[in-house]
Amino acid sequence: MRVGLLGGTFDPIHLGHLRVAEEVREKLDLSEVWFIPAGVPPHKRSEPHLPFEERLRLVRLAVEEHPAFRVLDLEGRRSGPSYTVDTLEELRRRHPDHDYFFILGLDAFVEIETWHEFRRLPELATLVVVNRGDLDLESARNLSKRLFPGREVLFLQVRRLDISSTEIRRLRRSGRSIRYLVPEAVRRRIEERGHYL
Ligand code: ATP
Ligand code: MG
Predict the structure, then answer these.
(1) Does any ligand 1 atom lie closer than 6 A to the CB of residue 108?
(2) Which of 15, 79, 117, 182 is most exposed, with the fewest beta carbons within 10 Å of its own?
(3) Mutate to test the pocket of ligand 1, among 6, 9, 162 (most ligand atoms within 8 A of CB)
(4) Per CATH, is 2-193 categorized as 3.40.50.620?
């Protein structure tokens, strides 16, 4: 199986994440895309706003209608920071025959040097970098050659959707609507539970 992996804090999941997963699935002919919410994200300056179980639940609501999308809870069950290398190693142990494609936005890729044991990442999965915001995909290619010489890193242009979890949280805090930025079921639960107010 060719499996795409999309890690993130998902605080909360939004249509930007989902559209990236769908476009990469199509372009790379992936059998499935697995969403992997981070337990304790090593890179965020502060703790996530919602606990792992609730972020996980929102991701489940978001992907349940897509036959090729799945959610993995393995990062929430490990203690300590959620390092991507550990996750990829565990997935390779579980399913040694799968081909893994680790998907990340350009904003995340330009900081990859700060990730735990980042040099090992391309041995464990093919990295797939998608554009985000105004960041320049071309300069990222040079960064990739420097950091991972001789390794293939894929750069894919996807539809630009200027949506971030930060912006969703900001809208909620200022009492504004998040409709059509997140799946409807996700919006309903966020509003019912009074999240991010
Ligand atoms: P926050 O604003 O809290 O950082 P976020 O919207 O960046 O949230 P994350 O959970 O941090 O969401 O992102 C997970 C992954 O998805 C990262 O690799 C990120 O680059 C990518 N991503 C998120 N939103 C988009 C988007 N709109 N377009 C392209 N990639 C995205
Ligand atoms: Mg982010």
Answers:
(1) yes
(2) 79
(3) 9
(4) yes
